[in-house]
Structure to design on (77 residues):
């Protein structure tokens, strides 16, 4: 789902290089919408994306690292 909604304009590596809580991701998605023309996302899908990204960040705590090679990322999520 993140693949579908977030990889259209930039690589997923850009998304996955960021870690943050729900608030951070909500703000990020708002920014995508305001500044970068992100199209509409159904609210429940947006909530799922935010939860997923925030959960992922908890599992992989706070420091930032260089983006993974795309070949190292999971097939889909
Ligand atoms: C319609 C195009 C578009 C879509 C769809 C899109 N983005 Fe972006 N996003 C951009 C552009 C343009 C930038 C700025 C790219 C750059 O700086 O190279 C960006 C940058 C970012 C950044 C880096 C922000 C920073 O602090 O530098 C993150 C994180 C991000 N997007 C997350 C997402 C997520 C999560 C989604 C899915 C919900 C998403 N994007 C969907 C266009 C898009």
């Amino acid at each position: 789902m993140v693949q579908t909604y977030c990889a259209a304009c930039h690589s997923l590596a850009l998304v996955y290089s960021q870690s943050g809580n729900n608030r951070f991701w909500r703000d990020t998605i708002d920014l995508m919408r305001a500044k970068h023309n992100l199209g509409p996302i159904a609210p429940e899908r947006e909530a799922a994306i935010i939860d997923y990204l925030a959960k992922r960040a908890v599992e992989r705590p706070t420091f930032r690292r260089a983006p993974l090679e795309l070949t190292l990322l999971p097939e889909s999520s």
